[in-house]
Write a structure and sequence with these properties.
mainly alpha, about 0% strand, elongated
Length: about 70
């Protein structure tokens, strides 16, 4: 069974397109599908929330200086 850190690393590599096909095959033959779905969904949600906060911060900073 893979650890959470290993699953997170695989999801992160896949999100940025640097996951090797060998690692991909290993992941899905040794670990169920659902941990990847859960970690991937959480990563996407946190990424979108982070972008929203970043853009809001930039917009508010621009309004304050102008």
């Amino acid at each position: 069974m893979m650890t959470f850190l290993s699953i997170f690393q695989s999801v992160l590599a896949a999100m940025f397109g640097v996951q090797s096909s060998k690692k991909y095959q290993y992941d899905f033959t040794h670990t169920p599908f659902w941990p990847y779905v859960l970690v991937g969904t959480l990563f996407v949600i946190l990424f979108v929330v982070g972008l929203i906060l970043l853009v809001n911060g930039i917009v508010l900073a621009d309004k304050g200086s102008g």
